[in-house]
Please model this.
Amino acid sequence: MDLRDVTLPKKFRSVELQGIASRCGRAGPTVHFAAVENDFEVAFVALDFFPPPQHLFLYWLYVCVDYRGQGIGSRVLQVIEDLARQQNYSVIYLRPHPLDQLWSKELLVEWYRKRGYECVGKDCDGMEKRLVGGRTPIAGI
Ligand SMILES: CC(C)(COP(=O)(O)OP(=O)(O)OC[C@H]1O[C@@H](n2cnc3c(N)ncnc32)[C@H](O)[C@@H]1OP(=O)(O)O)[C@@H](O)C(=O)NCCC(=O)NCCS
Model:
């Protein structure tokens, strides 16, 4: 699994990911990525690289519908966490808001919780994971 920097939506090969990327806003520190596995674009990732010691903001994570439920989202999250460690971030922050109708906020909160993220703020509006050195093992991945 690799993250490929995609600075313009037209650089996606996947029409689905191109559509998602075009909906995703971009501020100064935002970088858009295609997650590529076995030469297939399987997910879209938008990260806000606030300078450390601030957090890395996982702004959007979207796995193509046909590829869901196969561990891809989990693997992309691990790659993001590895990237964060390489760039000396100690915290990843995100807002668990569903990007389509197949997921609810509650399901997303559970999905991220299982992967080591904790709620912060009122009504779990945000979630964060404190990073320590080395990869976080997830059984079976
Ligand atoms: C949320 C998302 C990133 C997860 O990626 P994924 O590749 O589908 O997930 P994985 O295969 O790694 O994880 C599988 C787990 O998710 C669960 N899952 C998969 N689809 C689900 C669904 N529609 N509803 C609830 N749980 C679901 C599986 O039961 C499995 O649970 P387990 O870990 O207890 O076994 C992806 O489905 C997605 O892009 N969703 C829509 C976009 C979105 O709303 N993104 C959130 C931005 S914060």
